[in-house]
Amino acid sequence: MTMAINCLLLLLGFVLLVKGADFFVDGSSGVARILRVPGVVIGLTVVAMGTSLPEASVSITAGLAGSNGLSLGNVIGSNIFNLMVVACLCALLMGFVPDKELMVRDFPVCIGASALLAVFLWDDVLARWEGAVMLALMAGYIAVTVVQALDARTPEEQEKVSLSRCVLFILGGMVAIIWGGELVVDSASAIAAALGLTQTLIGLTIVAVGTSLPELATSIVAARKGESGLALGNAVGSCIFNILFILGASSALSPMENARALLPDCLLMTILTAALFLWCKAKGRMTKPMGAAGLAAYLGYMAWLIVNA
Length: 309
Fold this sequence. Notes:
This protein is an all-alpha fold and 309 residues long. The protein has helices spanning 3-35, 39-51, 53-64, 68-93, 100-121, 128-151, 163-194, 199-224, 228-253, 263-283, 288-307; strands at residues 125-126, 256-257.
């Protein structure tokens, strides 16, 4: 397959991601209104899981095939991208006040999951029992989120929203997002492999960015439509889902050896997540300077990876 064809497929993937995210956000925000729950809850659950399907597909498949560098690199790279690019770009485009529950419950869970992964990577093996622990924590997190969301339901609104239309938008948008993500990852990976990049570097950069494009497209569209809770909730929820579910399922099915090589990247992910949380907590909102700083940090990380490749 020629470079020109790969570039055309890459462009097609971007188009599918953007249009799919548009429909997905409309459908998800409609469901939030029907269920009378905050948009951030939908972002943390339905949207986060839906937009993380490309990461799940790539990492679980790679893990079963023994490509641990690609599997771990995809998740860690995607999480750094989600927080430093997805969340921070939304802040740069439109500063917003994060949802209170997100700061009290979800951001700390994200930091804890990142730190736990670093502990598990320390002995160079991500074992089956460690995967089982992460899956159990994911189940508990979802249960707590849903229960608290039901307790916080708002009074019924007069606006009538068609459930069938919302479901159609969600499913159609998800199909476009997943298909677009696959096109982007496959074409970008083919281009990267032709240039002689290593599997781990491909996982941390090309594949991580490619599988995170659904989160980026969805969050930007959500932020521009005023759904800031859904936008940030999507980024944070995706990070939690990536670690606890995707790596949990991957390692529970097939233990990952030689995992300590990615410990420095995992520690950096944990530090950046904590720094963004503390800065946001101190300011009380996601600001444009915060967004610019996050993007600069990500560009610095990419430069470091390339120089040390």
